[in-house]
């Protein structure tokens, strides 16, 4: 019997060899921590479908944000949760300078300055009473161009409140161009746009509804993409780059790694992937049952996203991973 002449196992034989030849790195700086801040609560509130994730008060957010930055995460992505009675059809509270998201951005900008990258979700679903990502026309459909006008107002307010990066996540056509123009006109030429460029209509956003205390009648299929459409995703990504996106994101991550890879191959700008709420819940639940090892699996999923071409990964484990890696 011939012995194998090629022995790839040689380079796996010691931890030092494996470290030397590792092709993909995962560092804390690659990770962005999404955080929720709620109005009208006196202490942080657990999100039952996302064990370990909470809706913060403004104070607990400041402490948790400082801890995450101290641990080394690359940035923070903020979502605001207003009181129900402050929600209306156009999401007015999102553009109120004292609205919860803008107030929290001001807090963190004051605390952290340029020590981290402060990002904000630029969308209406957290702020509207109907739960859609846009404003509705008289037939109840999401009105693309009217929504973009609101996104511009949101983005300008978030930039003025201290966001380094705004993250339009509503999948309206032309949202990046509209926001870029609006930011520039308001003097925020250095505020970057992280475009949720290829965002799929996904069941994995389920726990996010609880996280932002929002409900939605119907679905988002007139603005988010069908899970099977890869070429359409590339079209969306190219359009966002043309419109001036500084970073393009694919979301969710795990079921769409082929799209992440294609995005990385075509995009001249950094690519991000979002490990969304349902991905967090799914792994947490299996780990809680003792079926998988949490740390091993989390590191494996994030490494897979990096291997697929993601420069940046948004994950609710960002601060934990930063601590594990240090
Ligand atoms: C829209 C937005 C959503 C998420 C991020 N931004 C919800 C949606 O599109 O339905 C989901 C994030 C997650 O599930 O972790 N504002």
UniProtKB/TrEMBL annotation:
Enzyme Commission designation: 4.2.1.24
Reaction(s) this enzyme catalyzes, per UniProt: 2 5-aminolevulinate = porphobilinogen + 2 H2O + H(+)
Keywords from the named record: Heme biosynthesis, Lyase, Porphyrin biosynthesis
Record-linked InterPro entries: ALAD, ALAD_AS, Aldolase_TIM
Keyword presence, Lyase: yes
Top-level class of the enzyme under EC nomenclature: lyase
Pathway: Porphyrin-containing compound metabolism; protoporphyrin-IX biosynthesis; coproporphyrinogen-III from 5-aminolevulinate: step 1/4
Pfam families reported in the protein's UniProt record: ALAD
Subunit record text: Homooctamer.
Known role: Catalyzes an early step in the biosynthesis of tetrapyrroles. Binds two molecules of 5-aminolevulinate per subunit, each at a distinct site, and catalyzes their condensation to form porphobilinogen.
Name of the protein described by the UniProt record: Delta-aminolevulinic acid dehydratase
Organism: Mycolicibacterium cyprinidarum
